[in-house]
Write a structure and sequence with these properties.
The chain contains 8 helices and 7 strands; from the N terminus they run E-H-E-H-E-H-E-H-E-H-E-H-H-H-E. With 252 residues, the protein is an alpha/beta fold.
Amino acid sequence: MSDPFSLKGKRAFVTGANTGIGQGIAVALARAGAEVLAAGRSSMAETIKAIEAASGQAREIKIDLEKPAAAAKVLEKVWDEHGPIDILVNNAGITRRGDAVDLTEADWDVVLDVNLKAIFLLSQAFARKVFAAERKARVIMTASMMSFQGGIRIAPYTASKAGLAGLTRILANEWAPRGINVNAIAPGYIETNNTKPLLEDPARYQEILKRIPAGHWGKPEDIGGMAVFLASDAANYIHGAILPVDGGWLAR
């Protein structure tokens, strides 16, 4: 019997793969056998080096998610030039911190463009290619604890991640009958660039830590295993799920 968790022969397009959770996902998918297209605006050199060190395959794709329509065109071009994509990981995301009364319209727009609009347009472009080729595929979103909770001082981010939860469900409803599994991973508090302000605030860091049953913050690689699972045949009957990887945060 073949390994249901193997991704050998699959090609994965991972946004925001240069660092943090995206890097953890990209390396995990490569270790499971997938060829990784590491997509983003920043250099992917570190991620590609880690993948190659694990005997995996990867290439860098330049994409700017602050220009959602153009980003979707990049995905289409990559499919046409390099062959079909089996797994789309919509991981890239940004945040703007500040009291809701102080945040600007520009803060709101850039976060919603990157965290929600670009994800919809990338997923849409991907699905059109998959349906035209009559293939099966996976879409994996990176959601958040803010898909379930409100948080503080991150209004655009919370709105985008709550919206992403809804988008995951509606796309699953429409696309499951046509062969695309759409699911989301909701990371808890993970040590990344996005959470650096919290990590550098001793009082806030301890406040968060006390609520995590596991007793520690997560690492990017902690998200990788869930991504491999959702991308694999082992998750064939999972559609529209938003799966927490949070050290028990929501259970508390």
